[in-house]
Amino acid sequence: MSAIKTAAVIGGGIAGPVTALALRRAGIEATVYEAYKNTADGLGGMLMVAPNGLSALEVAGVDHGLAGQPIHRMVMTDGRGRRMGEFAGLTGLPPSQVMWRADLYQAVRERAAAAGVQTLYGKRLAGAEETPAGVTAEFTDGTRVTADVLVGADGIRSTVRRLIDPAAPGPRYTGLLGFGAHSKAEVPRARPDTMYFAFGEHAFLGYWPVPGGGTAWFGNLPYQEPLSAEQARATPSAAWMRILREKFAGDVPGRDLLRGTGDDELLTFGGLEILPSVPAWHRGRMVLVGDAAHAPSSSSGQGASLAVESAVQLAR
Which residue pairs from 236-241 have beta carbons closer than 8 angstroms and sit at least 24 positions apart in sequence? Predict the structure, then answer.
């Protein structure tokens, strides 16, 4: 393959713009193509960026002005509030940072734009054709673009992954629905530098105190039917809150956190999915990064971190 000078990056979430930024540092001109017609400003819940993700963001130049809540340790408890174990941060590394996905997305998008990365919206990939000289991407609006390489940063339902390997596995439902919210309730003796994981009788709940008062929480509800975020949001928040309050009624501190959460505060994420091992993450002039190649368990806290680390490693 001749020297790579241009790249078409499919996917304008977090991995796509970081990939484009990292490729520019490697001397490759990258353009981002996003399927949706608008940006994702203001969308999404909270996530944690671990030290490896923070390091990769720094390499890509997205560390300035990115503020989160430092998490120095994690504590595991049972549904009665009894401590089961504790994990400290990694020696010599900065603490993980909890932040809104929307804030991370905005920082990445704005940094890419400032660096001269062009992002085109309403460009949903339909197919791609490779030649000895390059790869041509065709979009559903009929437009085509040619670059030296095509990078699939298009998430867990990646179109590029299917082009690389039509037999590639797709995401699998874990049997859990994801929810989160801010509660007015505060957990006695809970520390703001600590994330807590409570394993209750019927469901799991994670939480941490937030600056200014109250507690942020997220919960995984066992649910037989796989629901997309759109399908789950078709059910009113009040109905989901009734179910969640019932499931956590006997748990500490889940009971109090749910009681302190208003129905309109609930964030509904739909079914949690995981991606099985992908046999082929590249072929010819096409390659995958981020969730398109390795979407980890939602409980790992590594989704965003691995996505940006993947982008930097590809550029290297």
Answer: 236/263, 237/263, 237/264, 237/266, 237/268, 238/263, 240/179, 240/266, 240/268, 241/266
